[in-house]
Structure formats: structure tokens, C-alpha cells
Amino acid sequence: MQQLQLTDFEKIKPYLDAANYEGYNSNFVTMMMWNHEYHVEYEIHDHFLVMVHNYKGTRYFAMPYCSKEYLKEAMDYMMEYARKEKFPFMIEFAVKSFIEDVKEIYGNQFIFERERDQDDYVYEKDMLMNLSGKKMQKRRNHYNNFVKEYPQHEYRSLDINRDFDTILSCLERWEGNKEASESLASEVYGILFLLSSNYLLDIKLGGIYINDELKAFIIASPLNHSTIQIHVEKADKDIRGLYPAIQKEFLEHEFPDFQYVNREEDMGLEGLRKSKLQLHPCHMVEKCRVFINDSYIRQACSQDKEDIKKLWLSRFEDEDEKTARFYFDKLYHEQYTYVTRFDHHVICALQIHPFQVSGYEHSSFILGVSTDIKYEHQGIMKKLMRYVLERYKGQRIYLQAYHPEIYIPFGFQPSHKHQVIKVNKHFYKDDTSSIFISNNNYDYQAMYNQYTQRFQEYLIRDKSYYCYINERNQAFGDKIMTFINNGQPVGYMIAHEDEEELRISEFIYNQELLKDIVVALCQKYDKRIIIETDMQAKIEGKVQEVITMMCNQPSSSNEEIRFINEIY
């Protein structure tokens, strides 16, 4: 390996062109601007170019630069090089086209970790230049205000020999007001390198002058795919509309034949992400890290619990710290949990609990199927699911699927449905009811057992289920209320209430008193009422049928007399 130098461009350009990667990390100008940070080394072989970055003690590869036909040759060499040099194989900033080629050649030999914070924002040049349309209205207003306030401003193409001192003094003035930081110092160093190396790099500079004083400037260079990259964009922040002005006028004067503008990544900074999204990118250049796939599956142990909990919270929108704490303190069992581990942490998990269903001696229930978002779309969940199904081969297994199409390839079919009913309160407005709705605790298990007598293939709930019912409701912000008729409990509901809606997620009722119960609800709650209930319930309103459960074995009973209503 040899150090990358400014004078190496002509040697490596054919390989950069052969790879033709999208994304600014493959731009030679970018490499040189930040080479003081990354200390890039490279080797040229007959068919490919390899680059190694050395960043703060970590060594990693760039994507190999070659045509697709030599990609395997390059990758094999890189893996062997990492082995000999004794550093972990990793490719940083890999783009989608490269990843697809690697998957085609190597199958599952590599694993890919998404890097959303490193994705490039790409914009239509005309939109940024013309500031046209509704999307650009706010930015257009800022620009128009700038033009009104500074009608004598002037755009000039900058020349390093003539304007170097002016640019340097502006940088010192604008950046001197910021708190000193390592990243800021590094950026200024990179800018100075570009300015001092302008004669060897394909870059253009442009600035806006007010009263013959430089107030903003841009440094940009051409990329592949009819795209230009803005490396540096600096302006006096005290002048309203100056940022949209320098961008608009730079694009009007420079790079006339290009269609797109790459404005680099947001680095995970919330403010920067917001501002880049507000400019409405036409697409993102997605980035990944690439590793050798040494992931493995095993039954969970105590060290996995916190990782699984983090996955649970990140992937299930209706979960929060309270609900997760309840589940993992009261219901989680590591012996019923299986995980895929990679890089010393859990990247995929599922749980499979015993599930006592009437009519069947042995059943299980899969829940909590979750994959770390950084590792999605690589078949990781599929592999874990197949592993678990093989271990439980021959058993009857249920799962609750929000996206049933995902589980059909594993042999699951819908087994249970329920109704979600928006009650037509007008229909019940003239009716009366003898039902009283109570907050007191009753024997909920007895009511459930009475209710399920008319069903087949229902969950047999034991005492432990109802031991935790109040804790569970408290965690979810739900409440349990009982329907009373002539002093006797005849059913209950678990519901969540806000200012506009009462949503009943469990509705246990006496069939003969169903209408009376619904009337009582309409009289008590002056708001929208949504009831999730079994397929037999006859309630007036707007009805939606929803798949509640899927099963890997057929059912012997009619669909309408099956009932399971479980999350956990």
C-alpha cells in the first residue's frame, strides 16, 4: 500500500470510472479534502484498485474500484489482505449497486449494516436553481427578501490566485465566532487544502459580493451520473436569504450541463437533517457497512435481555418504556426466546411461548419477531424463523401477524379473525339499558370462561393471566370495566380512552345482553366508540374484518366459532 497523493489522480481515474459508483465518497476531490483525517492508502492491480482508510486507529476498505467482472477478484484479495494484516474486514460507505452485485456473487457470505446518517442527499439542480413550486416557497421568500435588501449584490466566479486571501479572511471571520471543535478545525483544514490545490483538482468556486465585500462562497466539483457535489458552502449568517442566494446563483453560473446536486450527508445531526429534508431531495444515495457474515443463532441467555428489549422498543410502535418494563419483568422467559447475534449484539429475535388452545394438546405462540432496522432485507428474520420452526417441527404454532403476507411462505394461514366496529351511536340513541358499567374488580376469569363456552379453538387462560391484568392495563394506559346487570357481572371490557375516542381492545359479553351493553356504552361515553370483538357479535356500525391469528396447521372448526384475542 502507498499513501494517496494529489498527483495520483491520473493513475487512479480509470478505476474510479470503471466502478462508476454513485455517492460523493468516490470523488477524488473528497478523498483529498479529508485525507488528513483518513490517511488513505491504495494499491493498483491489473484489474482493480483497493483503498484502505486509517481513521483514529480503525482500518477499513472503500469499495473496490473496478468493473463488475473483476469484483470477485478484488473482494477476495481484500479479504485475504485484511487477514494477513490482522484487522477486521469492513467496507465503509457501500452504495446500493455495489451491495446488489456482492449479493449476486457471494449470496449470504456478507452482512450489510445500514448507515442512514451517511446517506447522500441528491436534489434536482433546476429546483434549487429556480426555487420554483410550492416546495420552495419559503426558500424563495428568503431569496426575494435578500434581493430586495441588497439589489446591488454581485455573483463572481472566484480565482484562487486572485481571491485566496479574501476567502481566507472570510473563513476566519465567519468560523471564528463558533466554538472551537475538532470537526470544525478539520473542515477548515480541508477547505484550505482545496484552495491551495485548486490547480490540480477539478473544482469551481463562486461567491456573492455586497459592496465589493465577499459575503458567501461555494466550492463544488463534478461527480458521475450528471451530478455536482457541493463540498463547501459558507455565508454570513447575519444576512437573511444569503444561503439560498449563493446556492441559486452559483448553479446559474457554473456546471450548466449537469442535472443533479449532491449535498452530502447529515451525519445524524437533527438540525442538519431537518434543513436538508426541507430542500426536498429527489433521492438519497443509501450507504451501508459491509462485514463478513459470522452471525449465528442460539437460544437467548441473560446477557441478551437488554438487547432484545431495545429491539422490542425500536420496532413496535405501540410499545414504550412502561409497557416494555411490564413485559420483560413479568412475562419474558429466555428459555422461550431465540436470537441472531452479530458483532457482539442481538440483531434479530423472536419468542415462542406455550399456548394452551382448546381442542389441541400442544400449541405454541410466536411473538416479538423483530429485526434491527440496520440489518433488514437480508433474510435474517427468515433464517431465524426457519430455525425455530424446525426445532418445533410437527407442533401447532400460532402467531399474531400485522402483515400476514410475510408469514404465508412459512406455511402460516389465517386461522382467526375479529371485527373492528365503529359503533353507529345514532342507531342506539332511543334505546334504554339496565346495564351498569362498574370500575370495581370482579372474577374476570369466570366471565371469560363463560364467554368462551360458545367458541372452539380459543385460548385457555389460567389464573396467572389475570394476576397481571391490572398491571398490564396500567402499563398500557388502559382500564378494565365490568358490565353489571341486576347486580351481577355479565362481562367486561379493556379499553383505552382519550378526549375523542373510547377504543375497546377486549370485549367479553353476555350474548343475550349484547344490545343492552352497547346501549349503556353509548349513553355513558359522549365520544366515538370502537369495539374489537369476535365474528359473532351483531353491533350496528362500520365494520372492518381483521386477521387476528395465523396458524401453521389447518383448523377443524368453522371460522365464526373460533376466538383468540391475545397480544400478551
From TrEMBL:
Keywords tagged on the record: Transferase
Record domain N-acetyltransferase: where: 295-434
Positions of transmembrane segments: none
Gene3D superfamilies from the UniProt entry: 3.40.630.30
Record InterPro entries: Acyl_CoA_acyltransferase, GNAT_dom, LPG_synthase_C, UCP018688
UniProt keyword Transferase present: yes
Gene Ontology MF terms in the entry: acyltransferase activity, transferring groups other than amino-acyl groups
PANTHER family assigned to the protein according to its UniProt record, in alphabetical order: DUF2156 DOMAIN-CONTAINING PROTEIN (PTHR41373), PHOSPHATIDYLGLYCEROL LYSYLTRANSFERASE C-TERMINAL DOMAIN-CONTAINING PROTEIN (PTHR41373:SF1)
Name this protein carries in UniProt: GNAT family N-acetyltransferase
Originating species: Sharpea porci
